[in-house]
Automatic annotation (TrEMBL):
This is FAD-binding domain-containing protein. Signal peptide: none annotated. It comes from Punica granatum (Pomegranate). Keywords: Monooxygenase, Oxidoreductase. One of its GO terms (molecular function) is monooxygenase activity.
């Protein structure tokens, strides 16, 4: 809930990695999400570097805000999907749970898998290397 409603950054400070998206291990996305964070954060910071090659503190704050905005809903969906996946797989053997488990694997799992796919974008080329 903190990811959706909370403040993920302030001025020149932000959260990333497990601090932003504490998931259960059921979708195996924790490390992937951390790597995505690094690329998205690097992209926003790199795009904020001025023509003189410098990054002003105000520009850093804007870059961190863009990063947090971009990552907020991605993290929320992965956290929810991972929790749901674990709950369905581990929660008892009653008829209702079996029904939910069947629906999960037939319908919801395909939606969950589509959430896993993510394009972080390209890092800016500040070195002039092709």
């Amino acid at each position: 809930m903190v990811v959706v409603l909370g403040n993920l950054n302030t001025e020149n400070i932000t959260v990333a990695g497990d601090a932003m998206h504490p998931t259960t291990p059921d979708l195996r996305q924790g490390s992937c999400m951390t790597l995505e964070d690094a690329v998205v954060l690097g992209r926003h910071i790199g795009n904020s570097i001025g023509p003189d090659g410098k990054l002003r503190p105000a520009d850093l704050g804007l870059a961190l805000g863009k990063y947090a905005t971009e990552r907020r809903w991605r993290a929320a969906w992965i956290i929810a999907a991972s929790f749901l996946s674990g709950w369905v797989q581990q929660d008892g053997s009653g008829w209702w749970t079996k029904f939910l488990r069947d629906m999960f694997y037939k319908i919801i799992l395909t939606k969950v898998i589509s959430v896993i796919q993510y394009d972080c974008g390209r890092l800016p080329n500040r070195m002039g290397i092709s």
